[in-house]
Amino acid sequence: MGRAVTVATCALNQWALDFEGNLERIVRSIDIARSKGARYRLGPELEICGYGCSDHYYESDTLLHSFQVLEKLLESPATQDIICDVGMPVLHRNVRYNCRVIFLNKKILLIRPKIALANAGNYRELRWFTPWSKARHVEEYFLPRIIQEVTGQETVPFGDAVLATKDTCLGAEMCEELWTPNSPHIDMGLDGVEIFTNSSGSHHVLRKAHTRVDLVNSATAKNGGIYVFANQKGCDGDRLYYDGCAMISMNGETVAQGSQFSLDDVEVLVATLDLEDVRSYRAEISSRNLAASKVNPYPRVKVNFALSCPDDVAVPTCMPIQWRYHSPEEEISLGPACWLWDYLRRSKQAGFLLPLSGGIDSSATACIVYSMCHQVCLAVKNGNADVLADARRIVHEETYIPEDPREFCKRVFTTCYMASENSSQDTCNRAKLLAEQIGSYHINLNIDVAVKAVVGIFSMVTGRTPRFSVYGGSSRESLALQNVQARIRMVLAYLFAQLTLWARGVPGGLLVLGSANVDESLRGYLTKYDCSSADINPIGGISKTDLKNFIQYCIENFQLTALRSIMSAPPTAELEPLVDGQVAQTDEADMGMTYAELSIYGKLRKIAKAGPYSMFCKLINMWKEICTPREVASKVKHFFRMYSVNRHKMTTLTPSYHAENYSPDDNRFDLRPFLYNTTWSWQFRCIDKQVNALLFLHGFISEVLT
């Protein structure tokens, strides 16, 4: 009868403008799909050029090279007898569109432009592309000559249409279209489309996978059908990590799940499903069928091809499975680790250097690198030839095999404790013990000579010697002395990153890792151009609360007992003098707020879009059991004062792994001024009026009751 259809989807680790590598990975995915019996293969969004091309989309070269890759795909034996659905930019009547190009046996069947563009948060698609606004409309697209010579076609359909094969009907939607209130799959399903496809460039955010999976499953729960979801994976050149999660769903249930985090450049999912299950599911939904009788039909492109075989009665079909989600701690362990590996191998450096202070943030960063080493060894053990080749190139040994994470860590990871006269022996010991347990090449050094030299230059020029507050100096003097220490550490970090391997007789340089968390960046609790200034920062989008939970996860799963004392110690910058040999400075006292409070401020400011007055109004209810309205007002004012005073630091923030939706990253995610009127006079006056009104009301009620 031709009931069992076999479809494939994939997650590819594409790289912006790496046309050679992108082509190879696309062909490899098609080969795997065909070898598993698939008759249709779906790839990620803009997979030919890579999603993150940004302003390179304006260049005609990007369009030209995309068509050159398409030419190679059309000619490849791998693409014969399988419908291939690939993503690339296309210029139609001098307008750029984000498109799917669907072809079979050297013939282009349809070019389907994206209808709803992603244009919030990290996405700027409207900057480069125009949405296709002509619903259910198809035009002629005149193919470039290089494609005409392969296909023998002069024009092909371009627009909002669906494919009608011999046995079923397929309709495409792209990434953002799944997230819109009126997704195309709704009307397509009502018009008889049985297989929906979605090619995505969806990045990782902590706790986001549930939302994505629910959207895919709900797409067919009410309307019936098969949903095939493809996504990019890996770091394709910026702060985002695309987290795969390719999946296939039918009638509201997952039938195939891809990995969220892995070092495999190519991952292909194949499922065989019974079309009659879709038809019988739809048959009893009377409300759906009534709506279907009124729907405006889609243009159909007829395809003389079937996704099933005539004699398929004995073909086994896939059954529903339970999706396995990672905990947030697992996500932190795996996502940034995979991102670091991509950055390391693609930057062609020899490893990482981390200033390891013995505190939670730098220790969490070290644990992520250690997790990366675990992932590399596991991938090699599982036969990943790409990872093995990359590891050998990084360590400059042609026969090397990474088997022990600690041994591999020693080769690619250098940690450095930079002591000063204000550092405690406790943090020195913690850093040393953690380095021993993860296996990093560890350096202990003292920066006092450099600090005294720099301060000495100032004293020689001005005739004045600054002092710390505890020795009678002003707050300005004390802050300047703290900043000198912090900035000298940054200079030394880059010096050692460039020359440490040279000194050890090993070729190559190291990438400097930063370790400022998202809450510190939001508050501006960092020195501009200190060790927060690095090449990349794997924890810059992660909250202190989540990092503490991650540290506990590492204690339990990696047996890193050194982390216990790090967890129990209060966070401190150790930039002010010790008192009786003990640390007197703590982060939360310096900031005037707790890390837990910072997370709340960050979420209200960015996610809830709250200014000072709105934040105050929300917090007087949230904190009514623990704070008076006047105390809430004081806390809100202090946060906004400190946030606005320090906002300029975000303009130089180290590129950080994006993991939180309240990140203050100024690059493109959180666009704000960096020169504020830090008095917030109007806003704070509104808060004060509300506080007085509440106090008056409280007094009036008390008087009435007595």
UniProtKB/TrEMBL annotation:
What is the organism of origin for this protein? Pachyramphus minor
Q: Which UniProt keywords apply?
A: ATP-binding, Ligase, NAD, Nucleotide-binding
Question: Which GO biological process categories is it annotated with?
Answer: 'de novo' NAD+ biosynthetic process from L-tryptophan
Q: Kindly provide the name given to this protein in its UniProt entry.
A: Glutamine-dependent NAD(+) synthetase
Q: Which InterPro entries match?
A: C-N_Hydrolase, C-N_Hydrolase_sf, Gln-dep_NAD_synthase, NAD/GMP_synthase, NAD_synthase, Rossmann-like_a/b/a_fold
Keyword NAD recorded: yes
Subunit structure and binding partners: Homohexamer.
Q: Name one Pfam family in it.
A: CN_hydrolase
Q: What protein family is recorded?
A: In the C-terminal section; belongs to the NAD synthetase family.
Alphabetically, the GO molecular function entries are:
ATP binding; glutaminase activity; NAD+ synthase (glutamine-hydrolyzing) activity
This entry carries the following GO cellular component terms, namely: cytosol
The Enzyme Commission number assigned here is 6.3.5.1
| NCBIfam families in alphabetical order | nadE
Residues covered by the CN hydrolase domain: 5-275
What Gene3D superfamilies does the entry give? Carbon-nitrogen hydrolase, HUPs
Q: Which CDD domains does the UniProt entry name for this protein?
A: GAT_Gln-NAD-synth, NAD_synthase
What is the name of the gene encoding this protein? Answer: Nadsyn1
Which pathway does it serve? Cofactor biosynthesis; NAD(+) biosynthesis; NAD(+) from deamido-NAD(+) (L-Gln route): step 1/1
